[in-house]
Amino acid sequence: MNTAAADAAAFRLPILTLAARLAHTANRAVDQLHAIVLANAYQRVGPHGGYSELNADGWPLQLCLTLGPERTKVRLLGDPGWRLRYPKDRLKASEAALAESFVAADAAGLLHSAKDLLSRAQLAPEGIEAFRRGFVWVAVNLAAPGAAVYLDAQPLGAQAWMEAEAWLEYILPTSRFARAVIASLSPLADLASLSLEGCTPADARAKLYFRLKQALPLTDLGIELFTDPLLLGFLHRMIGAREMNLSGLTLSIGFSLADGQLTDVKADVCAHCLPQSTAQWSALIADAATIMGVALPKLDAALHDGTCEMANLGLGMDVARRPRLNLYLKPPGMTAERASAGLPDDSHHRLQRALDWLVACQDNDGAWRDYQLPIGEACHWVTGFTGCALAEAAKPRIDAALRAAIFLEHAARERAGWGYNATTPPDADSTGFALRLLRATQCSARAQDLDLLVAHWQPQGGFSTYFGPDHWGDVHPCVTAAAFQALPQEEQQLRYRALLSYLQTTARADGTWPAYWWCNHLYSTWHHLKLLRRFGLQARFPVPQAIELASQASNFELAYAAGIEWFCGRGERARRLLLALFDRQRVDGGWAGGFNLRVTDPDCAQPWQSPSGRLYRDLHGIVTTASVVFVLNEMHHG
After folding, report:
1. What is the mean pLDDT of residues 241-257?
2. Contact partners, residue 182, CB within 8 Å, separation at least 6
3. Quick check: 365 and 408 in contact, CB under 8 A?
4. Which residue among 136, 304, 414, 509 is the one 20 to 30 A from 310 at the CA level?
5. What pLDDT does residue 396 have?
6. Domains and CATH numbers, the chain
């Protein structure tokens, strides 16, 4: 199946049929606009590995309904180029989606201004590289003229409000009122996005979306419309006395392109930040529509049968005090099957989707790349790690693992072994995973590469990552457990007694093994338990205690915690952790990365006692997703 056909198959969603019904237009017309706002034709301009933050679960699409006193306006909102990993590629897709969307929606008169807004991404302190999660969201009206573009303002950093003021001064005939609003809001709120909405300069609005820095009454904003009883009553019914993160409330204010004056304000509440049942959402929507006197389309069936879910609910108010209710709907989330025992019913399917995503993220040269340290992007290490996970789990996808092995073979022509990337010294961890990948793909390992790994074996047992400096040359548990599996059988036999002594020395009383290069013990402990299982040594060591994770634990931590519980025979606990992990799997099949890698300071011997060093996040989630693959494959086949 080619890419375009695959995209069509993946995204011919029931929510699009709902959109066509509500807009009284043809399915084919909705499909065409859907492909435009997502820039589907540009999804192969670069490697995959990006994801969308439009919705909490990674869906790059929303169906937006604006219910006013006269009619219902229906829009599609999309995140163009959402799959693409690198900002330069997402920028190309965003530019294409912007141009095609405004023309298709009969809003070509605003296209120049929309392009100017997108060009302001270049003003971010880090340039376009700051836009790792996309530049703009694009919306088009269905069966009516009109389009919109929303530029992410967060990468503009501390200068975001200043850039907003400069943009409004450029685009509005007079910006005096807008400047006064910014002077009032900037100390109290963070700018979320800049937006342009409409058909022509005569009817268009420039909008600022923002979030409060701290909880405060809306009367403190100094904008009278935000104190309207209807709007305040709406927020009270939505939130009431319940706790919600401030990021769950997004406010906006609009200015007319015709005269620069205030047009409207709006308050949107995030459904993910304020979880409620479908019945509760239906009741809230019906209640709000009744109070506002707007007609409510028939949505109950769609909300209950899995056609869509709530993404946001908002209320807008124009200067004439006419309210509008805004419903933002998304495709249903990727919720895990609640099996009663053992692995969740869909765990194999989840694994296959993760494997497909990793294959799609592979660069044309066969490598995977992630992280961004001062020494650059991780390449050789991430390729070995990910390729090894893929090769051990996915015989049908062995071609991708083989391409990775060939890449590493070529990369090692100038020296023995592999490192973090081509500019760093070779290390035992990267070399170990590369050798495991070569073996799994039946590629021949060179003697000098094996010799380099063996040279890192210390007489007391265990591998050092490097030969120094300082404590970087010590034995590191998180490297030893994984690298020992890369040794040929005869080399393992020679070091078996030393390995056993090392394991007994480094194991902690609670049954875990510490980590030098990771934020906690989970990665190291899981790889040790896998090693123990391989050599039948489980009975010689204490069983790790049950793991209690914080609610904000990363996907990386969830995966290894589930794997540890599984190794320990606590199947029910492992299943619950997997269900939590599966609920976070994005629609593209991957998982978001986290701040898990610690570059420990060389003068620090035991970071598990006194952490020293900086944590880094796998920006594209490749190492996190490969870790899930390692764990799930062991559960299925280990």
Report:
1. 91
2. 161, 164, 165, 168, 208
3. no
4. 136
5. 63
6. 3-330 (no CATH), 347-637 (1.50.10.20)
